[in-house]
Amino acid sequence: NGLENKHKWFAFVEFDDKIDPELFIKTVTFELDETFPMAKVVRRKSPYEYSCVGWGEFEILIVIEWQEWTNKPETELIHHISFAGDISESKFYLVLNRELIR
């Protein structure tokens, strides 16, 4: 039975502070290999997350499109996911200019 090699996983974008991320984020796009049933998902509202069942190793592209008033270009993050070995968690930290947070 191949089910024991499948794992439920999720990826998400969130803010550490008690700040509404929708003030800064316009969309978050999650892109996976075309073999996934929903290979591209665009989230326009918080929570900005994607969950799926997978196995093996693969990469997920996370594209953050910022609200126009921030004057920030899109941010692209490539996250490598592997189900070999121990369960782990990876984080990317993005720093916003404090002047943007009022």
UniProtKB/TrEMBL annotation:
Residues 1-102 form the YEATS domain. It is found in: Nucleus. Gene3D superfamilies: YEATS domain (2.60.40.1970). Its main location: nucleus. Keywords: Nucleus. It holds the Pfam family YEATS. GO terms for biological process: regulation of DNA-templated transcription. PANTHER family: YEATS DOMAIN. This is YEATS domain-containing protein.
